[in-house]
Specification:
alpha+beta, 8-stranded mixed sheet, 5-stranded mixed sheet, flat, binds adenosine-5'-triphosphate, binds 1-O-pyrophosphono-5-O-phosphono-alpha-D-ribofuranose, binds magnesium ion, ATP_PRibTrfase_CS
């Protein structure tokens, strides 16, 4: 994952100790580079005063696009059913949390409204928080991995012509073609992150153009040399003869739960509701991320099997294993040759765990 510029763990906010104890939950806050902070956002954050007077808690959910239905599905899996009578109704309730109002908004407007204090919480892609939050210290990432909406913001160039042998950002920067008269033309919808990334990578001669969609067509049309856009499967780039380059990923993104720092700090109802949502998200995400592996293993005793399992690097950090004798009858005697073992494995470690269990004599998975 590319390092996220301007994000750091927020250790000195009073709520952090209680929330950040959870696995995969980080309370992070965009650092505030005061000098480069755009005035419009700073002003928006400053007029956040209305938030203090509201008693109900407002969460913004994507009203349309690919994040909309998956967000509702996730909440449903957490037993938080959003009651929306029809898709054109922009406000809804979640009966399980009585003082919570759901507002359906476009993802970028969710971030904007968190900054103005019109929303307290929101679910959007990290790319949207980073682009429209513009490093504002007013935004707190409450949960950084809701496990959908995975994509990356990445720079892509044509596979052909002058770019044929260019495969990294440093090679792109060193190309003699880019001058102040003829800068590298980049098409992007990310007008904050794009210039920031190029500056950080030393690309001086660059000009940006914006469009709302189908950016991948710009190089073939001759209107841009490169594009900076979201990539998920990579199909759109491939179909348009474009390639990503080494060092060209601006950020890795997925859906996150974001909060207004001020609302969380100043209004106890927001903090309580944030905790409640977080507990439910964590319980659900932990459960779906875990697999139970059962296997048989030959051995002299349960202790010996336990030692063998716990000596393996991918198995030693687990809670357990549960080891039970498997009884059989041979020549009229009840014997234990095998033990049944049960371990709980995070999804990402599943393959390695099974390999390591096999390596120490596990079978019958
Ligand atoms: N190809 C993709 N695969 C997975 N997630 C994506 C992809 N493209 C975007 N996303 C995520 O989904 C979010 C919403 O994208 P979506 O395309 O639905 O809306 P949008 O691009 O903001 O709006 P619109 O396409 O209507 O202009 C993005 O901010 C990003 O986090
Ligand atoms: O790597 P892939 O899986 O091919 O996905 C990447 C494409 O998905 C997004 O477009 P979207 O579908 O949102 O259309 P848009 O350009 O109209 O926003 C993004 O802007 C890319 O064009
Ligand atoms: Mg889109």
């Amino acid at each position: 994952m590319a390092a996220l510029p301007n994000f750091f763990t927020l250790a000195n906010v009073s709520l952090s100790s209680s929330i950040s104890a959870k696995r995969r939950v980080t309370i992070t806050c965009c650092a505030s580079p005061a000098t480069s902070f755009p005035e419009s956002v700073a002003e928006a954050a400053a007029v956040n005063g209305t938030a203090v007077e509201r008693s109900e808690v407002r969460i913004g959910l994507p009203s349309k696009g690919r994040m909309a239905s998956e967000t509702l599905d996730l909440l449903k899996d957490c037993q938080l059913s959003v009651r929306q009578v029809n898709p054109r109704q922009y406000v809804a309730q979640i009966p399980q949390i009585s003082n919570l109002e759901v507002w359906f908004q476009r993802p970028k407007d969710i971030v904007r409204k968190l900054l103005t204090g019109d929303l307290d919480l929101g679910v959007v892609g990290l790319d949207t928080v980073s682009e429209y939050g513009q490093g504002s210290p007013e935004l707190i990432i409450v949960h950084d991995a809701l496990e959908y909406g995975d994509c990356r913001l990445s720079l892509a160039i044509p596979k052909y012509g002058i770019f044929e042998n260019v495969n990294s950002i440093s090679q792109l920067v060193q190309m003699p073609q880019w001058t102040s008269e003829k800068p590298l033309r980049v098409a992007t919808g990310f007008t904050y992150l794009g210039p920031k990334f190029m500056k950080e990578n030393g690309l001086k001669h660059v000009a940006f153009s914006t469009a709302d969609g189908a950016l991948e067509a710009a190089p073939a049309m001759g209107t841009a040399d490169a594009i900076l856009d979201l990539v998920s499967s990579g199909t759109t780039l491939r179909e348009n003869n474009l390639k990503e380059i080494e060092g060209g990923v601006v950020l890795e993104s997925q859906a996150v739960l974001v909060a207004s720092k001020r609302a969380v700090i100043e209004r106890s109802a927001v903090l309580t509701t944030t905790h409640e949502i977080l507990e439910r998200l964590e319980a659900h995400l932990r459960a779906v991320g875990q697999f139970t592996v059962t296997a048989n293993m030959k051995g002299r005793s349960a202790d010996e099997i336990a030692e063998r399992i716990l000596s393996q690097p991918s198995l030693s950090g687990l809670q357990g294993p549960t080891i039970s004798p498997v009884f059989c009858k041979r020549d009229g005697k009840v014997l234990v040759d095998y033990y049944a073992i049960v371990i709980c494995v995070p999804k990402k470690d599943l393959y390695l765990c099974v390999q390591q269990l096999r390596g120490i004599g596990g079978s019958g998975f």
